[in-house]
Amino acid sequence: VQLQAFGGGLVQAGGSLRLSCAPSGMISGIRTMAWYRQAAGKERTLVASVTAGRHKTYADSVQGRLTITSDSRMNQAFLQMNSLNPEDTAVYYCKFSGAWGDIWGQGTQVTVSS
After folding, report:
1. Judging by DSSP bridges, how do beta strands 101-104 and 45-51 pair with one another?
2. Cβ–Cβ < 8 Å for 61, 81
3. How far is CA 110 from the centre of its chain?
4. Which one of 23, 28, 40, 45 has the largest count of C-beta atoms within 10 Å of its C-beta?
5. Residue 105 DSSP code
6. What does the pLDDT average to over 66-82?
7. How far is the C-alpha of 44 from the C-alpha of 82, rounded, in Å?
8. Which pLDDT score is estimated for 47?
9. Are 88 and 80 in contact (CB under 8 A)?
């Protein structure tokens, strides 16, 4: 099973994007869904996560602007990104975690122009 992330693109500062992440097949026992990002030349860092469908955490830099949601029935994760700024430019990755370990998506590029 693979994760497919999509919804990235080019947007002007102040704009919005909505990222989606879905598995290519059946998965059960997902504990945590998360979004990470990696800017050019930097390490991959956690953006937001949701555990058990309700416990959410956010990086300080995105608090109040980005919102993670999930659909436990469809096993999908979403990242609504508002008030984007150039510092949000990065490749965004989704990750699903469970007792079986971690599954990463392939990444989707988000570019915010000033």
Report:
1. unpaired
2. no
3. 11
4. 23
5. B
6. 94
7. 21
8. 98
9. no
